[in-house]
Specification:
CATH topology of the largest domain: Rossmann fold
Shape: elongated
Number of strands: 33
Strand content: 15-25%
CATH class of the largest domain: Alpha Beta
Strand order of the largest sheet: 16-31-32-33-29-30-17
CATH architecture of the largest domain: 3-Layer(aba) Sandwich
Structural class: alpha/beta
CATH superfamily of the largest domain: HUPs
Helix content: 10-25%
Largest sheet: 7 strands, mixed
Number of helices: 14
Number of domains: 4
Bound molecules: adenosine-5'-triphosphate, magnesium ion
């Protein structure tokens, strides 16, 4: 490493293991046997189905319930790691459930992408040969049956007020709601009406099914919430079979209960929905439709990361307006974007797990993710040399020292300094070498220990050109440089010092303060380097209602043409390396071709954004 570079080994995120109150809840429930003795029918189902099944071998059941209306992002990774992690750690099973009860926004494309992303992150829902992949839309029949049961029990009614009337009659914090004229209908009337809704005899929006709870409740969610609406829309799974669709707040608790979920973990904004969650499930269990013990909802704070946005609308805007190249652009905080950028599944899991779970939303600095990536790759990514901004260095006395200008001196370097079993990289040193442009300074600043030419001090004394070691190669002494008409340096000149080759006896006799990385011109591979950086210049791109597009980082991608050492010939897609002194890179999974390499910079070796 260049001795005038800082220690590149940025450590893992410093925080001590953060609290995770959800683990505490699960441990307490296991201790008290809250969910012991549950039966599981082998698949989701009603009370009778589960009663006929064996004791559930899973100690707990959790679920990750994405709505298939977009791509998963880093915030979802938090929820995935929590739910699958709790199941893994406590002898449970985590289901992947598509919460696809809204017919308008959901598509198969997203279903496939979500499956791929969760697998990539390292989680699986197949246990003992049974796949616990479920679709909420498969429960539409049960949901409707439950709706009829609520109506018959006098716990729900069909309301034909207009949407405005309903809003006005809901009241507010200070005023209780006002009953709809439909609220006093008999169960028989309501049942007939509900069936008309189902059978397509009412227009879209002409009526809704509402729970009959408490119009004066201080919790507005209990003021007769809507359970079903009429909407003629083709659903990606059930086609045109239904023209009424359940509301999320009605569907979600039922989905959990049908699947025998024990711990239904969701984000904080659902806290006010918990009383309705419990109301609904208790009544349906009392009516004999759902198995006990019932699932319990537990809320935790969202994970937000600085320098990104996660709202689906904003992400779509970035894609559709061409600020990025697509949903998998390496700058996108989607799991596909993070994957293509080069983040490892382990680094994302480490960040998610390390952020704990609490009752408040969490803001994590993006550098934590980079720290997790470095911690993961430091010990495993093979090393290689690459020149990002090339400048030619000519060793003018090469023939004198090595016999001929054409001589190529074989050099070796360990593939990984801590893993000798990974073997050696091979490359050659010759008369011409690519070095980094900023490893040469015609007029060096104080403390610059890399290449600079000889100079004469104001007092007339001579300072010799500086000596550096070409890493794994030989020591060279700078003798000058050549420049073009504009004064830009076109090549650097140096002499090579005999008997200084790394690894040979006496090679260290010449002391140098700097070591630089390089690639031999004779065997260098041309490479396209995509130097990615933060998407935005501001940690909170939307702070104070700001338009996130106004703080896009203009340098969030710099494309460079550089050179790679020859050992990287034929690198497969998605192989990751540490390019010495420069950072971690990955062979791009889309654009990279073994004969025309394209590497993405995942992150630098240290945090260049630290204040
Ligand atoms: P958005 O509202 O941003 O479009 P969503 O949260 O509604 O996304 P879902 O598909 O419903 O998207 O999310 C699936 C699960 O992931 C939910 O349980 C949700 O609470 C959780 N989740 C989404 N974003 C985050 C986040 N930033 N932190 C933790 N969990 C999250
Ligand atoms: Mg949602």
């Amino acid at each position: 490493m260049a001795t005038d570079h800082k220690d590149p080994k940025a450590g893992p995120p410093a925080a001590a293991k953060p609290s995770n109150f959800l683990r505490g809840i699960v441990e307490r429930d296991l201790e008290t046997g809250a969910y012991a003795g549950r039966h599981f029918g082998g698949s989701p189902g009603d009370a009778a189905h589960h009663a006929a099944g064996a004791l559930d071998a899973a100690k707990i059941r959790t679920r990750f319930p994405p709505e298939p209306n977009g791509y998963l992002h880093v915030g979802h990774a938090k929820s995935i790691c929590l739910n699958f992690g709790l199941a893994r750690d406590y002898g449970g099973i985590c289901h992947l459930r598509f919460d696809d009860t809204n017919p308008e926004k959901e598509e198969q494309e997203y279903v496939d992408a979500i499956i791929e992303a969760v697998h990539w992150l390292g989680f699986d829902w197949t246990v003992g040969g049974t796949s616990h992949l479920y679709y909420a839309s498969d429960y539409f029949d049960f949901m409707y049956r439950a709706a009829e049961a609520l109506v018959v029990a006098g716990l729900a009614y069909v309301d034909e007020q207009s949407a405005e009337e309903m809003r006005a009659n809901r009241g507010d914090f200070n005023t209780p709601g006002t009953a709809s004229p439909c609220r006093s209908r008999t169960p028989q009337e309501n049942l007939a009406r509900l069936r008309e809704m189902r059978d397509g005899q009412l227009a879209d929006g002409a009526a809704v099914l509402r729970a009959k709870i408490d119009l004066a409740s201080p919790n507005i969610n209990l003021r007769d919430p809507t359970l079903y609406r009429i909407k003629r829309a083709t659903h990606h799974n059930t086609g045109d079979r239904w023209c009424i669709y359940p509301m999320y707040t009605y569907a979600h608790p039922i989905e959990d209960a049908l699947e025998c979920i024990t711990h239904s973990i969701c984000t904080l904004e659902f806290e006010d929905q918990r009383p309705f969650y419990d109301w609904l499930l208790e009544h349906l269990a009392d009516l004999g439709l759902l198995a006990r013990p019932l699932p319990r909802q537990h809320e935790f704070g969202r994970l937000n990361l600085s320098y990104i946005v996660t709202s689906k609308r904003k992400l779509r805007q970035l894609v559709e307006e061409g600020h990025v190249t697509g949903w998998d652009d390496p700058r996108m905080p989607t799991l596909f974007g993070l994957r293509r950028r080069g983040y490892t599944p382990a680094s994302i899991r480490a960040m998610a797990d390390g952020s704990g779970a609490s009752k408040t939303n969490i803001w994590l600095d993006y550098s934590v993710l980079d720290g997790c990536l470095r911690a993961d790759l430091e010990s495993q990514a093979p090393r290689a040399m690459a020149v990002l901004e090339p400048l030619k260095l000519v060793l003018t006395n090469w023939a004198e020292v090595n016999g001929a200008d054409a001589h190529l001196e074989p050099c070796t370097a360990p593939a990984h300094p801590q893993h000798p079993e990974l073997g050696q990289r091979r490359f050659t040193l010759g008369r011409e070498v690519w070095i980094e442009r900023d490893d040469f300074a015609e007029l060096p600043a104080k403390g610059f220990f890399r290449l600079y030419p000889p100079k004469t001090q104001p007092d007339g004394s001579a300072v010799p050109g500086n000596k550096v070691r070409l890493k794994y190669g030989m020591v060279v002494e700078c003798t000058g440089c050549e420049k073009d008409a504009e004064g830009r340096v076109t090549q650097v000149l140096a002499r090579v010092l005999p008997d200084t080759k790394s690894g040979t006896p006496g090679a260290d006799a010449v002391k140098v303060k700097g070591t630089i990385t390089w690639v031999g011109v004779a065997d260098a591979l041309p490479v396209t380097l995509k130097l990615y950086d933060r998407l935005y210049t501001e940690a909170q791109p939307e702070a104070g209602g700001r338009d996130h597009l106004t703080v896009l980082n203009p340098k969030n991608l710099v494309v460079a043409q550089g050179w790679l050492e020859p050992s990287l010939a034929g690198t497969p897609h998605e192989a990751r390396f540490q390019f010495e002194r420069h950072g971690y890179f990955i062979a791009d999974r889309v654009e990279h071709l073994p004969g025309a390499p394209v590497f993405n910079r995942i992150t630098t070796l240290r945090d260049s954004w630290a204040a």
